[in-house]
Design brief:
Radius of gyration of chain B: 20 Å
Shape of chain B: globular
Radius of gyration of chain A: 20 Å
Oligomer: heterodimer
Largest sheet of chain B: 6 strands, parallel
Strand content of chain A: 5-15%
Number of helices of chain B: 15
Distance between the termini of chain B: 37 Å
Helix content of chain B: 40-55%
Strand order of the largest sheet of chain B: 2-9-6-5-3-4
Number of strands of chain A: 9
Largest sheet of chain A: 6 strands, parallel
Order of helices and strands of chain B: EEHEHHEHEHHEEEEHHHHHHHHH
Chain lengths: ~400, ~400
């Protein structure tokens, strides 16, 4: 097991009705002037924003709003937010939405205190950001885990360059996790969210060294539990228990609390980021295509690892004579599960062909310095990236 | 699924040499630190000196207070509080096993309280909001106090043992180097392991499956602990097994295992009376009581106990008669406990006769404002006596 430092200081308020406490929570952390940041309007339609505004009013908080965050959130929107924060002396940003809205809020948070272009943090070697406007979140989708980590992934508008950054000030002070706020999610978003959370934990499972067997057992349980409850949540959108299981898993999984002591593998996320940057596909759907391809490509380099996956997660009988056969059977079952929840498993289902493979592989190469985690099983070159992409066809 | 608030401010520094970072962390709280520890083992092993040096290198002035005993006593905490006030201490470092850390938590909780700190221990007053910062440098895997809210303190003569805690009693920093557990005597190592497993199983012993995810995580952790205790016993310098136990100790109490469930608590509450009355090692008492508890529940909560034992010991399910599964599992559990060198009966460990069973059973509820103990099968004191008898 390798040494590690861990801290996850976010206050998580899990359960029904949490959104009514938002005003009180912001007061507790010393906020007084609030920017409510949200996405395309579903939070408005569902009535969630109204509840939040009522809570803020009750706590005598001044607030203004900035909506319109899109999936794969754009830098331009965050810059708008930075301007508002400066002009209105905002001291608390409340993100109401999923990973995109939260990531955008985090970008605004540190951008307010930086004189230059906030994008510098995402692409340049810089002194780490030490100051940000306080953040809180009200989560509306179980997926990225951004509500309990300190990372943000943003896309620059003009060239679709998609990059991530993380630093302590981007930890939210609190996150309100009410599974009821995910009842309105459609089947596609629910499935994509579940796929995203599974991909996050797979990053700590598809590794070369057996660093932390306990953490690996926990990951297996998280994935199995998610595979059980995602289909239920899709079939019964207002099944509180199933929604709660997904929300809990997403929050627990992505903040590193179950993967301490493991250097995670970032292949699926790195490649998917290029897909969603160039084609604006739903992140989880892109991951559903990339994950099986990534597994298939790596089987021969780590057959024991994939045999363990096949047995412990996908229920394939052990065959010590043919670990690779086992591995491929496990991957086939995983693909079938993805299909069963309505996710694509090939690029053509997303309307994507191989015409920009080279460009994507080049972009990953160019960002390699910044993308410190990439592959743990074997070093990845441009050729490896292309090979995985071809398996996505 | 129950609602839940999770808030863990503890920073964790895990791995070889982690104790050398204590100075850096302490300096972030102030210039004057109290090292609070037990007997001489941390001095003999050189750990005390390393911690002291790390503090001094970081420009922190060091004060000491040793003498914490297992089942730590409130009078030493009072002394510590006095010392902290007199010397304007900025941070307390609990150095040692669970007892040293619990005692440090008690000092920090009492620092800004005007009355007697025992009021906090027996929960007559809530834990104050303001505490001195706590750094835990833990040398064993077991109680999880290195990250948890809880502390357990006994009164002067040790006759009453009381647990208290709030989110503010979580250590600010947890320094966790698994190598520091190498010098534990085998009995203590095994007992600590059973303590960890009990923390996990008490989550599973929730009346309903309130969160399957939580249950899965708890069972997987308990299973991993049971696998690693024998490995660590067989090779006292095996980093893998020791680091897994240290990790599990911390993980079980970090807070993720509380989501959506009610903790049973029976085993801990009932065992505390045993170790208060007979000064026994907590984990050894838990091992004995776990066996007896499962026997008592065999025909009352059959499916739950069967599931636990199935997961832990691969006992095949007997679907025609699930009680058979339970009894086969209990047989394996007893054999397992023996194999790691722990007692399975009260009569073979510390307890000469049954004369104090009623007294202990009544004490479980004393001052607690409730009529039963346990969640999955709430018991009256009379029923607790029955289980003590089964354990004898």
């Amino acid at each position: 097991m390798i040494n590690f430092s861990y801290s996850m200081p976010v206050e998580l308020i899990f359960g029904k009705g949490g959104e009514h406490k938002v005003g009180e929570l912001i007061r507790k952390y010393g906020g007084s002037r609030v920017l409510i940041h949200y996405g395309g309007g579903s939070a408005k339609r569902s009535g969630l924003l109204d509840k939040i505004e009522a809570s803020l009013k009750e706590a005598n908080l001044w607030y203004t709003e900035l909506g319109g965050v899109v999936p794969n959130p754009r830098l331009s929107k965050a810059k708008e937010g930075i301007e508002i924060c400066r002009k209105e002396n905002i001291d608390f940003i409340l993100a109401v939405g999923g990973g995109s809205v939260i990531d955008s809020a985090k970008c605004i948070s540190i951008g307010v205190y930086y004189e230059g272009d906030v994008w510098d943090y995402y692409i340049k070697p810089m002194p780490i950001a030490t100051k940000g406007v306080m953040l809180g979140t009200v989560l509306t989708i179980a997926a990225a885990g951004s509500e309990s980590d300190c990372g943000s992934v943003m896309t620059r508008d003009e060239d679709s360059h998609k990059m991530g950054y993380s630093c302590e000030p981007m930890f939210p002070k609190f996150s309100v996790l009410n599974p009821e706020n995910t009842f309105t999610l459609g089947a596609w978003q629910t499935a994509a969210g579940a796929t995203d959370l599974i991909a996050h934990v797979f990053g700590a499972y598809i590794v070369k060294d057996w660093d932390n067997i306990l953490a690996e057992s926990l990951i297996e349980e998280i994935i199995k539990n998610t595979m059980k409850y995602a289909p239920i949540a899709i079939k019964e959108p207002d099944n509180y228990y199933a929604r709660a299981q997904l929300m809990l898993a997403a929050t627990e999984c992505c903040n590193g609390s179950h993967t301490m002591g493991i250097k995670t593998d970032g292949v699926s996320h790195t490649i998917e980021h290029e897909l969603s940057a160039l084609y604006d596909v739903t992140h989880g759907a892109g991951l559903a295509v990339v994950m099986p391809a990534w597994f298939k490509y790596l089987v021969k380099h780590a057959p024991e690892r994939f045999a363990k996956f096949a047995h412990n997660i996908m229920g394939v009988e052990y065959d010590y004579e043919d670990l690779e056969g086992m591995a491929f059977e496990g991957i086939a079952r995983f693909e079938n599960w993805l299909k069963s929840i309505g996710m694509p498993t090939r690029l053509k289902e997303l309307g994507i062909d191989d015409s920009r493979f080279d460009e994507m592989a080049d972009r990953i190469e160019a960002d390699r310095g910044a993308v410190e985690y990439y592959s743990r099983i074997k070093p990845f070159t441009k050729e490896d990236t292309l090979a995985v992409l071809r398996l996505c066809l | 699924m129950l609602d839940h608030v999770f808030h863990t401010q503890t920073k964790i520094e895990f791995g070889k040499g982690a104790e050398n970072k204590v100075g850096e962390y302490a300096a972030s709280f102030g210039k004057r630190a109290l090292i609070h520890y037990g007997g001489g083992s941390v001095k003999r092993t050189g750990l005390f000196d390393r911690v002291k040096k790390s503090l001094e290198d970081a420009g922190v002035e060091v004060f000491e207070l040793g003498g914490v005993v297992p089942n730590p006593r409130v009078d030493l905490c009072r002394k510590g509080i006095e010392l902290c006030r007199k010397e304007n201490i900025d941070v307390v470092i609990g150095l040692g096993g669970g007892s040293a850390v619990d005692s440090a938590k008690c000092i920090c909780a009492g620092m800004y309280y005007d009355g007697d700190v025992w009021d906090i221990c027996n929960c007559t007053v809530p834990v104050p909001e303001k505490l001195l910062p706590i750094i835990a440098v833990i040398t064993m895997a077991g109680s999880g106090t290195e990250v948890s809210m809880g502390a357990v303190i006994s009164n002067e003569d040790g006759s009453l043992k009381r647990g208290f805690g709030s989110n503010s009693t979580r250590p600010n920093v947890c320094i966790l180097n698994p190598e520091l557990t190498y010098t534990l005597p085998p009995f203590q190592l095994a007992a600590g392991g059973v303590d960890i497993a009990t923390h996990c199983l008490e989550r599973v012993l929730s009346e309903h499956v309130d969160s399957e995810l939580t249950e899965r995580l708890a069972l997987a952790t308990a299973k991993n602990v049971f696998e690693n205790i024998p490995r660590a016993l067989a090779d006292p310098t095996d980093y893998e097994s020791h680091s897994q136990l240290s990790y599990a100790s911390m993980y079980a109490m970090l807070g993720w295992m509380y989501f959506g469930i009610v903790t049973d608590g029976w085993l801990h509450e009932v065992e505390h009376e045993l170790s208060a009355a007979y000064d026994m090692t907590h984990g050894a008492g838990l091992a004995i009581m776990m066996i007896a508890y499962f026997k008592y529940l065999a025909d009352k909560r059959t499916e739950k106990i069967a599931k636990i034992l199935h997961e832990l010991f691969d006992v095949p399910y007997d679907f025609a008669n699930m009680e058979n599964t339970v009894w086969e599992g209990i047989r394996r559990l007893e054999n397992y406990i023996k194999s790691i060198g722990l007692p399975t009966r009260l009569s073979e460990y510390c307890v000469p006769d049954q004369s104090r069973f009623e007294e202990m059973a009544n004490r479980v509820l004393e001052g607690r404002n409730k009529e039963t103990v346990g969640h999955i099968y709430p018991m009256t004191p009379a029923q607790v006596v029955e289980v003590y008898k089964l354990a004898f």
